[in-house]
Amino acid sequence: MLLNIPLTQYLFYFLSFVALLCGLMVVFSKNPVHSVLYLVLTFFAIAGHYILLNAQFLAIVHIVVYAGAIMVLFLFVIMLLNLNHDSEPHKNMLLKGAAVLAGGLLLMVLTGSLKGAETLAMHQPLNTQVGLIKNLGTVLFKDFLFPFEISSILLLGAMVGAVMIGKKEIK
Amino acid sequence: MNASNTPFDYFPLILMFIVAAGFVVFTMVVTHWLGPKRKTKIKLDTFECGIESKGNARVPFSIKYFLVAILFVLFDVEVIFMYPWAVNFKELGALGIIEMFSFIALLLVGFYYIIAKKALTWED
Amino acid sequence: MNNILLQSSIQVIPINWYILLSAALFTIGALGVMFRRNAIIIFMCIELMLNAVNLLLVAFSSFHSDAAGQVFVFFIMAVAAAEVAVGLAILTMIYRNVKSIDIDLLGNLKN
User: Fold this and answer.
1) Model ipTM over 0.90
2) Containing domain of residue A64, as a range?
3) What pLDDT digit, counting tens, does each position of C45-68 carry?
């Protein structure tokens, strides 16, 4: 066998690298439009992870909803408010340093707590059908029926709220 | 173990992405490389029907588009729930129809509210 | 042949790597919320944090062969869409009133 390390591992490292790098660029890029585009790239990397994890339907839905709808709305608002230039006054260095320190500490705590944890063995036998639409639909409409109906009320509330706020005329 | 459904099935999809991205990069590089470059100030200007262009191309546009975009996002999310329902339509039977119709009915209430509030009408 | 070439990642990647990746993504999101003053960027960082959690849910669901985690992600997506719709509407209205989306300026809106 030529490939000592399986290809999946390379893909995992590559996708993780892209996700983390683009995530950092979202935070540090000056132009809000660039931030949106980097976030879209991050979402694509995460969708790649979903495919590797056998969550195929979720990967497609993730792209459709996040990259296709939510990020377009973000881009739309940035264009609407004409923020495509760097209009943001900078925080002072002390606050930025504190933010980086706090973020680093958070990561340290999270990884530190992971250190003592046991690894979770893979469920045997391997079931690659979990992420298929049919299986998800059965679980969704049998076990998660009530949350499903409630989520329609959530969407209704969001609709009403958006119309109420968005339609208000400024005198 | 079931070998019929691995990430390998999506290899053609990756291939398609690579080909699509590669084509774009290839044409861009090749056109830059092949085409002659005679840059003048007027030539690099934004084309605006022969008139001199003024201002930024990205001017703030009407807020009326915005509400349409928001409502699009909200209705777009339903596809997550509708697709699994459509695939399992036969197995779920009558109960499934009732479930989905009550879901849709609640959203139609919201749609009625939107219409009643004239959020989608295009008055000036 | 196919299985050797490209296995599911749950066969070759330990779950700890996924937890680590999610933790890193979440930290980046949290860092962005603290680091930036632009309210829209802060919103995007919140989306990033939600996605870190989603990734972790999917990873655990996949390792346990349990679809419940993935169904849960559906609901998170619905909540995220609702949140974005209302949040961005509020931001636009604030911008129309104050002509800025700098959160430091929004702090003294109550006066």
Assistant:
1) no
2) 1-85
3) 999 999 999 999 999 888 888 888
